[in-house]
Amino acid sequence: MKRTISGKVEEIQFDSDVTFRILFAFNLQFSQYEKFYDGQLNWGKAISTLSGRTQKESKIKSDKEGYQLTLDGVTVPINKRIDYSVSQIYFTEPRDGQTVFSQQFGQFMPFKKVGDHKYLMSSPDGDNYYSYVNGICVNVRVERDFANFDFVMQPESLLAVETKADSLNIGSND
To answer: What is the pLDDT confidence band of residue 161, given thresholds at 50, 70 and 90?
Structure first.
């Protein structure tokens, strides 16, 4: 995961690769890139694959009326301003009831507070539970029909978050 801020431009790149076994080995990969200008989503793309087969693919671009989202080859307009998206939830703790835009699903999804600095976001694929320390996401519990798994911040990065270090090199392991 990489976040770059330069003036009014924020760029976030997120890549994950998870392998799990249920009789057979499966590999789940997800890659997302989003670019924001002055706090608003400007452009993005995402792709998820399961064992090499594309599951979802999306691209979003702002225009005069809002956005054009192409999701699995179908283009639809999004007429609501997007200033909080899935890529940003790793760097900014949500509020109870706050909605986040997912270009993978083409919709806004609400966060529900389920504990101290812990939130639930339900998607069409299943539930994700997010845990935060000092405003930074340190753990994501992903619950799906086929498997449950955790994305956990690496210990050295967690130490930096816990001590509010200025420079964070955020990573995950499964």
So the answer is: low
